[in-house]
Design brief:
This protein is mainly alpha-helical. Helices cover 62% and strands 4% of the residues. A two-stranded parallel ribbon has the order 1-2. α3 crosses α4. The N and C termini lie far apart (37 Å).
Length: 95
């Protein structure tokens, strides 16, 4: 998956992906809101077809992804969120 996924998000794309359950995302990044998952070739085609023919749903997903990008993936937010997590973890360790 790598950074391609975040490039799709920042590029205002609707995303169809193989399962991403093993990855952890900050914030609210959810199936059906930000991406669709497929487990077979047929299911992939179905999900792409859905997005191609349902303009409203596709546009909602695009806007959800752009909002997610602005809040979690944009370089400034990415650094800010990492620093917040470091401070929070430091408080937990130091009591």
């Amino acid at each position: 998956m790598g950074w391609k996924f975040s490039e799709y998000i920042s590029g205002r794309c609707a995303v169809v992906s193989s399962p991403i359950d093993e990855f952890k995302f900050p914030g609210q990044f959810e199936e059906k809101e930000n991406y669709l998952t497929y487990r077979s070739t047929e299911e992939c085609v179905e999900k792409v077809d859905l997005l191609l023919h349902d303009n409203k749903y596709r546009n909602e997903m695009i806007e959800n992804n752009y909002s997610y990008y602005l809040n979690f993936v944009h370089p400034e937010k990415l650094i800010l969120n990492v620093l917040k997590q470091v401070v929070e973890n430091s408080k937990m360790v130091n009591g």
